[in-house]
Amino acid sequence: MPLKADTITKDYVKDAGVFADIFNYYIYGGRQVILPEQLTERDSTKIALPYGADGAVVPVQKFRDVQKLYAAMTDGKIEYVLYGAENQAEIHYAMAVKNNLYDALEYAGQVEEAVKSHRKEMKQKKEQGKTSADEDRKTPSAGEFLSGFWKEDRLIPSITVTIFSAWKSGMGR
Question: Is residue 79 part of a domain?
């Protein structure tokens, strides 16, 4: 049974050298900015919890083809970027929406991690009996408290490239 073109392309793109070349070409005009050794494989599974019409939470699982974390030194600081690749053997006319959904789920996950971290820290400090007058405890503003995401928090950028493969199923067996 021949392999699907998307499966073959996904396997090929997972290689760190190939992945780096793709993003160096499309994002950086061919300049060798991303090196394979700066890339770390990431779990490409994302879970969304959209609310149904009756208010019930209905989990939806999405799978990005390939996602890698890029880490590089910039001005003495580590800079992180998430790069994702989507492989298509056929034209997907709503691909921009699909990619934006993956990126939005990534950002939502990062916000949720920050919220959990802040809640845990506030709970620990409260349990230790520290008051809001303590210098090492941040008192969140109304907006920070409401969102759970603080002004100083930063999101790791997420960039997705779609790769169209003209390779057809049944070829190259």
Answer: yes
